[in-house]
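Aggregate trends can hide what the representation actually does to any particular protein. For completeness, the protein is quoted in full, as a sequence line and a line of structure tokens.
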Amino acid sequence: DEEQIDLFDVFLPDLNLGELRVVLYIIRRTFGFKKTEDQISLKQLQFGITKRQDGEQLDRGTGMAKSSILVALKSLEKRGLIKVRKTMTKDGDNSINAYSLRFQERVVRKVVPR
């Protein structure tokens, strides 16, 4: 897919390890399950997903510190590689954010430096 090639051909040299880990985790949670968007908690980004029923660990997350994940998410969003959709509970409280990938040609032409 040409949109994915843009990520690797244009942005890959400029991503730090944290940004790369976070974007790869989002790719796994979206494209890996044939989704365009997925709600991913910071805890899941950090530690992965464990099934409640039997305790089986589905993945191990990024293995990064919460503060590093937040920095990477902010950078990836600023650079136009991901879209973050804030979600709310019925009571109006913040809920788990939904993440999607934004590999669009117009974004590639506007590479945002660090």
Observations:
- The two ends are 26 Å apart (CA to CA).
- The chain is about 40% helix and 15% strand.
